[in-house]
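hey team, just a heads up i'm posting the complex here instead of the shared drive bc the drive is being weird again. everything in one block, sequence lines first with there labels, then the predicted structure for the whole assembly after. its two chains so it's a bit long, scroll down
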Amino acid sequence: MSQANTTDITTYMQSVGKQARAASRALAAANTGDKNSALMAIHDELVNAKPDILAANKIDMDNGHKNELDSALLDRLELNEARFNAMLQGLKDVASLPDPIGEVTDMTYQPSGIHLGKMRVPLGVVGMIYESRPNVTLEAASLALKSGNAIILRGGSEAFESNQAIAKCIIKGLSQTDLSEHSVQVLQTTDRAAVGELITMTEYVDVIVPRGGKGLIERISNDARVPVIKHLDGNCHTFIDSDADPEIAIKVSVNAKTHRYGTCNTMETLLIDASIAKDLLPKIATAIIEADDAMQLRVDESAESILADVITLNGHLSAATSEDWDTEYLAPILAVKVVDGIDEAIEHINTHGSHHTDVIITDNYTKSQRFIREVDSASVMINASSRFADGFEYGLGAEIGISTDKIHARGPVGLEGLTSQKWIVYGHGEVRA
Amino acid sequence: MSQANTTDITTYMQSVGKQARAASRALAAANTGDKNSALMAIHDELVNAKPDILAANKIDMDNGHKNELDSALLDRLELNEARFNAMLQGLKDVASLPDPIGEVTDMTYQPSGIHLGKMRVPLGVVGMIYESRPNVTLEAASLALKSGNAIILRGGSEAFESNQAIAKCIIKGLSQTDLSEHSVQVLQTTDRAAVGELITMTEYVDVIVPRGGKGLIERISNDARVPVIKHLDGNCHTFIDSDADPEIAIKVSVNAKTHRYGTCNTMETLLIDASIAKDLLPKIATAIIEADDAMQLRVDESAESILADVITLNGHLSAATSEDWDTEYLAPILAVKVVDGIDEAIEHINTHGSHHTDVIITDNYTKSQRFIREVDSASVMINASSRFADGFEYGLGAEIGISTDKIHARGPVGLEGLTSQKWIVYGHGEVRA
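-- predicted structure starts here --
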């Protein structure tokens, strides 16, 4: 298929779409037990096929080395023993989650006599586009099945052999159940034209979930006609208010910045109230540097005048430029700004942040409530590390992704993000007057 | 502005967008009393300016006659005494609705110690694009204000004077309150380039709500980068099951087809089970023709063989083509098809319907529940007229529109459709392990 021309790709994708739509109808009506059995059948097939999958992954890795892929990409591509077992455990975890489908809420009688409520239903067909990590193939398939959705998967070309080997197990597992083998379809082509078809087949695909770098996600969002649940930047702030508990301020700042760098909920900018900055900022800055000696602080003028004489910070300071306030570093770099109270803090966050996760450290009731209400972010926190903005820490059991959209799903998205609610009406022969 | 070039339009729209974003921040923090006061201040301004508004409308009507607009469009454009009063009443109704903003749900402690929940918040900035009816200007503005959103309104050029006159009252009303005058902005240009800017300014606009014909909505959906809450076809079905109560079948069919023709929840196709069609279909068809002698029935072969001899149907029957199953007539025309049981009915509805509103008439428990679960539509009903699919009949108080999307909002959309939920975390110094 890789060499197929565009007409062939269109025909191929139309047939994939049609099959997915048909499978989604059956899946929407499947019961929870059948869906869980399918997940466990896939689990058993994976256990049996472990040598084949690891061998397929070795082909991808060898090709990756030959093609001189960078080491971070090769790392994500690799399936070793530990990752394979984690993948199996993840599948069992999804099987044990409660089924979101069928929940009926808000049933009330209306003046006309009809009994009206909402029923949670699958979205239908999910399209997933992702890069190197082959375990995403299984994770996405299991989340889709559990939530009653058919899924079309398009992984990266560098993981082609691994993904096909995993797909074989999924199809084998499905074939032992009453669910359609087309419930999960891993594309058999890496032709880019297939992505173009996938994100525009509004009659067959209900939502696109891209996973990967910002470039990939922006490209997909721009070209898609199908709605996209997307995750862009995480430019997260911690604001140390004048009424902050100093110990909490230090502890949370260190955790939010240094716990991990590559994650979207890592603090990128520290804001601190001018009235306490002279006393508290040196302590926070020192603690962060102590946690990681490689840390660089990009400081505004006020912060610099406070920190310049602190000997331990020697070599860790540089002047912030206006660009720093808008940057997600994903690295041991922290922007630091002294602000004149909560109004400037909120204004800065709403203007320069990415509306992902922002934190206030304070012991003042009024300011804590203003921050919660006025900061326009997917997660807003008081006295806690931004690192908590995560599907597992939020108790969702599994994470489809983290959404930076306001529409449909916001912040960490669990199985519910792959569902919708339809209105249901139980009547007794009512007609409209 | 109408003669401005594209650069000017871009500059103008950027400034409108920036002002809307700033106003939305203040609105998000406004309390319910202030929002209601603003609505009542606008109400009073409208009462005072009634002669001016009606005079402005007369200019639009005169221009419309001169430009030979069709009579349906002229009818929608006209603001008479009754419509003006209905508009005022609508404003008071919105003021009396409960405020959706600030509702906190699902607060639970997580194992880490954080107290986690969700808070309902405004989307931010709404862009509304609509055609002739000037009362939409006020309706949209009031719904946006009540739900804490700033709004940018772009009405049809044929209603320009009316919309500007109403906008004046809105601004005057807002100026008497603490809310920003930029909370509601009616565009001062009818240049089409402004629409192009509005639907792509993702940094300033959070959602687009188009109202108008299918052509307008498809165009906007195709070009938009901002998410769109859209309403396309309403190709609604009523399926008369073999276990239907005949009286309910007749009563509901007549109401669903003949109550109104131009509405999206009107029945367009009647499906009837073969086993009862011979007895019941002539009765239903006759009752529908009795209700409106102008009715045309487009029937499949089986229905024709049953109905051909019914004398009262003389001149009302013609053979259905495959196109009929996919058509929203919005007229006294009904497609009729005899199906072989509930499986064929569900398959037909899911394939040919528009996923808007579909009804089963049955007294059988199992089939009623299968229909509810398996029909993939925004509203699915048992033994009730599809005409109930409406924000007011569903008790939403006001209706932003009816969504045919599955993402974010589905079916009738009330104030809640203009809101989102953010995660809130109340911590006590927790950090991630």
